[in-house]
Specification:
- With 539 residues, this protein is of the alpha+beta class.
- The protein contains 18 helices and 20 strands.
- Strands 1, 7, 8, 9, 10, 11, 12, 13, 16, 17, 18, 19 and 20 form a 13-stranded mixed sheet that branches. A 5-stranded antiparallel sheet has the order 2-3-4-5-6, with no helix packed on it.
- It is globular, with a radius of gyration of 24 Å.
- The C terminus is likely disordered.
């Protein structure tokens, strides 16, 4: 399991963990032999865990409505067993590989938590909850889409008195900045929550799964706190929600493939049913190219949305690269102006100093490009700027005739934070910082920005083809999509037989067979190849 602790002690027989709640005096004892978890007077809970993951270092990000928000900066993975001498040589090697997978995820920047506030929900969702919901623990009430340690904590969930030791951890990006305009100080906050459903890395996870969960789905909330009042504007991003793939094959841009034997309408319907239920009306901003290999995806998406005949969903296609070619980045305002009326209709969530709800957000913009990173982040930052312009005027921070773009100090904070958000999301999905962040930071494209985009693109190419297979398997292991059992045959051991099969194919096979073998093994460390084959069959 993953726990955040005030104090954690270790003895040869047990782990002793104190809750981090103020005034809490309970101590959780975990037996390292039987794996039983007990509190004084509690019935033991037995689990099958072999390791305890503990957050050992944290950094304060800021305060949200009086609640301290923390970023996890270091972890400790502690074995329940005092020795590994009982393992065979193969099991010992497998164990090292699985541990390296877990550490691969833990060292990916962007894990956040709060011990007394629910980071998984937006301000608007939290403002409209029942008394029973408020009485639940953070672990029970959390939005499971954004609880990245949910699988690790499932044994804790079974025993309510243990919940205080298990804090939901979100993955993404959070920044909190005190700002001043016209001598008035307000708090500006940006929170991006990555979904743990269909989570993964760039070329290995595209489209949706059978439940309608989209790859690289991120909910981004911009919050303003001033003089007791608060405002929030929410946007989402996610892969085009039908069944398509783009497996790495050593080409710079692998050709995306739309599945020919799946029910796309069922999948996209499931996706947008949940989106409408959670967020209200939807405006899709599809930013992909309308020519070349991206064109069929745009056409398919448009056709499916039209086929749903749902008045709650609006589709807008905008060829980002074509419109902004030759450094004409001012043309992004064409899209912003085009959806301005819709944005005014959707509005935003706002509460006055007395707690009265002044407005609610009635819909969201769901943006996507191919990766839902670079182009998407640029557009989201522009829509969010338009929203905060209205919010600050209603709050009395901005004068009626003032423009947010004219506030130099705030603009610097705003642009850099949105660029940092782009970098965080890009590193988590694509393995490098974002592209086009020079525009987000400065409002214009620069030659140095183009050079840095080239560098990041080259790094992405290498990682996507030669190391992301390991990263994908690591995420699946961490999230519980793949479970390790001591009595099962390890998929890593299957590698031995497969490597001889591959060698035989490479030596004796035809050109077509060799190409197929290279594609199957490409992008994965050899120890991960058996799992890739299993995944391909399931897909």
């Amino acid at each position: 399991g993953t726990v955040d602790t005030g104090v954690q002690h270790t003895s040869p027989e047990k782990f002793y963990i104190e809750a981090c709640d103020d005034g809490a005096d309970a101590v959780l004892a975990i037996d390292r032999v039987s794996n039983e978890m007990t509190l004084t007077g509690c019935t033991p809970v037995t689990n099958t865990r072999m390791y305890l993951i503990v957050i050992t270092k944290k950094r304060n990000v800021g305060s949200l409505l009086g609640h301290a928000v923390w970023k996890a900066v270091d972890f400790d993975v502690i074995s329940y067993k005092k020795t590994v001498l009982h393992l065979t040589e193969d099991q010992t090697q497998d164990n090292k590989t699985f541990l390296s997978m877990i550490n691969n995820v833990l060292t990916t920047d962007g894990f956040y938590f709060c011990t007394d506030y629910d980071l998984t929900h937006t301000l608007q969702r939290l403002a409209d909850v029942s008394h029973d919901f408020q009485e639940m623990s953070l672990l029970e009430r959390a939005d499971q889409r954004f609880v990245w340690n949910g699988s690790l904590l499932r044994e804790f969930l079974a025993q309510p008195e243990l919940h205080k030791f298990a804090i939901p951890v979100v993955h993404g990006f959070i920044v909190m900045k005190p700002c001043r305009i016209n001598g008035k100080i307000f708090e500006w906050i940006l929170i991006s929550r990555r979904s743990c459903f269909r989570a993964g890395v760039r070329y290995y996870v595209r489209g949706i799964d059978s439940e309608g969960h989209a790859a690289n789905f991120v909910e981004t909330e911009q919050i303003v706190l001033y003089n007791g009042g608060r405002a929030s504007f929410v946007q989402t991003r996610g892969s085009m929600p039908f069944f398509w793939s783009q497996r790495p094959n050593l080409k710079y841009k692998p050709k995306p493939l739309i599945s020919k034997n799946t029910n796309h309408m069922d999948g996209i319907q499931r996706h947008f049913d949940s989106q409408v239920l959670i967020y209200g009306k939807q405006t899709i901003l599809n930013l992909v190219n309308q020519k070349g290999s991206e064109k069929p995806l745009e056409q398919a998406f448009a056709k499916m949305v039209s086929g749903m005949e749902n008045g709650m969903i609006k589709y807008v296609a905008f060829d980002f690269h074509k419109e902004c070619s030759r450094m004409r980045w001012d043309r992004l305002n064409i899209l912003v102006d085009n959806v301005a009326e819709t944005q005014d209709e959707y509005s935003y969530f706002m509460v006055d100093t007395e707690g009265k709800v002044l407005s609610q957000q009635k819909g969201t913009f769901r943006s996507n490009c191919m990766d839902c990173l670079d182009r998407t982040n640029v557009i989201q930052s522009m829509l969010a700027r338009r929203s905060i312009q209205s919010q600050l005027q209603r709050m009395g921070v901005l004068h009626v005739a003032q423009r947010i773009e004219e506030q130099a100090d705030f603009e610097k904070i705003y642009k850099n934070a949105w660029a940092d958000n782009a970098n965080a999301c890009a590193k988590q999905y694509a393995g490098t910082g974002a592209l086009k962040t020079d525009f987000t930071r400065t409002g214009k494209r620069t030659q140095m920005g183009l050079v840095m985009d080239g560098v990041n693109s080259a790094i992405r190419y290498y990682k996507n083809n030669f190391s992301d297979g390991f990263r994908q398997d690591s995420i699946d292991l961490f999230l519980g999509n793949y479970a390790v059992y001591e009595t099962d045959v390890s998929p890593l051991s299957i590698f031995v037989s497969l490597i001889f099969t591959l060698a035989y194919v490479l030596f004796w096979g035809t050109a077509a067979a060799v190409t197929a073998a290279v594609i199957v093994f490409n992008g994965r460390d050899f120890v991960d190849a058996p799992k890739l084959v299993q995944k391909e069959k399931m897909d």
